[in-house]
């Protein structure tokens, strides 16, 4: 049985004072929930704060990106080892905003995935198609090549210590959610593709759905056979919403 995972992605939001309020409310909200894992991925400057707020709770924390390099003259970059110094468990790689706004192509995403794993972090690998790609009927081809970039490096086995998040780009931050059936179809495709390479890895792989998940639609999405939780952007900034999504993910 795969346990569900609810991962918050704060993006470039937050501030020391407001984070205290949000983290305290999330800690209180998820206390006592069973059969669901939760994590928040926060901007780099707030990792220390997240570590100190969450270290004695069931909530893990992580970062939103990581350098593909281990150290050296890479001004502005943050290495996987640095994230480990702050107790991170997870790091998001290949988020569509990084791909579209910062030019991170599949090769870079694969390098970041490998760097994260080499250091002992669990990468949350984001894949997903744009609206134009969906309309052109190439959703599976797009998702497939995004997965192939990573699998080509480490084989399907590298997904044994990773999480995949299917995030249709047209649903991120738009209020438009993929229907449960649309999401399930892509999740099943992803699991099937991995299963063709390694059935055990595919069976255990947590595949999250991301794209305007909120308390009102989480139950329906999480009831689908291959949806193992959510990557939550906007709603992760609202403690009541985020907590309600975690409640919906309980087994
Ligand atoms: C995201 O940024 O990964 C995301 C899914 O955002 P939102 O929930 O706001 O659509």
β-sheet strand percentage? 15-25%
Q: Looking at the structure, what is the overall shape? A: globular
What is the number of helical segments per DSSP (H or I, 4+ residues)? 11
Q: Over the alpha carbons, how many angstroms does the gyration radius reach?
A: 17 Å
Strand order of the largest sheet: 1-2-3-4-5-6-7-8
Extended strand count: 8
Fraction of residues in H or I helices: 40-55%
Helix/strand order: EHEHEHEHHEHHEHHEHEH
Mean pLDDT: 97
Structure description:
By secondary structure, the protein is α/β, with parallel strands linked by helices. Helix content is about 45%, strand content about 15%. Helix 3 links the parallel strand 3 (about 60-65) and strand 4 (about 90-95). Helix 7 (about 140-155) packs parallel to helix 8 (about 180-195) and helix 10 packs parallel to helix 11 (about 240-250). It is globular. Phosphoenolpyruvate binds near residues 167, 210 and 213. Phosphoenolpyruvate binds near residues 9, 167 and 232.
Explain briefly what this protein structure is.
The chain is of the alpha/beta class and 251 residues long. It has helices spanning 16-30, 47-54, 80-85, 96-101, 106-119, 131-135, 139-154, 180-195, 199-204, 215-222, 239-249; strands at residues 4-9, 36-42, 59-63, 90-93, 122-127, 163-166, 206-210, 229-232.
Write the layout of secondary structure elements.
Blueprint lengths: L3 E6 L6 H15 L5 E7 L4 H8 L4 E5 L16 H6 L4 E4 L2 H6 L4 H14 L2 E6 L3 H5 L3 H16 L8 E4 L13 H16 L3 H6 L1 E5 L4 H8 L6 E4 L6 H11 L2
Parallel strand pairs: 1-2, 1-8, 2-3, 3-4, 4-5, 5-6, 6-7, 7-8
This protein binds phosphoenolpyruvate.
Phosphoenolpyruvate (PEP) binds next to strand 8.
């Amino acid at each position: 049985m795969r346990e569900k995972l609810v991962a918050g992605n704060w993006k470039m939001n937050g501030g020391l004072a407001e984070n205290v309020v949000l983290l305290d409310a999330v800690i209180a909200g998820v206390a006592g929930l069973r059969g669901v894992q939760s994590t928040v991925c926060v901007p780099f400057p707030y990792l220390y704060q997240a570590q100190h707020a969450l270290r004695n709770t069931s909530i893990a924390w992580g970062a939103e990106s990581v350098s593909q390099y281990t150290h050296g003259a890479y001004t502005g970059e943050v290495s996987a080892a640095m994230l480990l110094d702050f107790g991170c468990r997870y790091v998001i790689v290949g988020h569509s905003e990084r791909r579209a706004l910062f030019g991170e192509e599949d090769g870079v995403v694969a390098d970041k995935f490998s760097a994260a794993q080499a250091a002992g972090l669990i990468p949350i690998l984001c894949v997903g198609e744009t609206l134009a790609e969906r309309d052109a009927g190439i959703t599976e081809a797009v998702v497939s090549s995004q997965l192939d970039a990573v699998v080509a490096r480490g084989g399907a086995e590298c997904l044994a210590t990773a999480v995949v998040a299917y995030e249709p780009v047209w649903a991120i931050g738009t209020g438009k959610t993929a229907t449960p059936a649309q999401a399930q179809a892509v999740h099943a495709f992803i699991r099937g593709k991995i299963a063709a390479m390694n059935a055990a890895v595919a069976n255990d792989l947590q595949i999250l759905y991301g794209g305007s998940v909120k308390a009102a639609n989480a139950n329906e999405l999480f009831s689908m056979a291959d949806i193992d939780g959510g990557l939550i952007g906007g709603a992760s900034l609202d403690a009541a919403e985020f907590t309600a999504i975690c409640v919906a993910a309980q087994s």
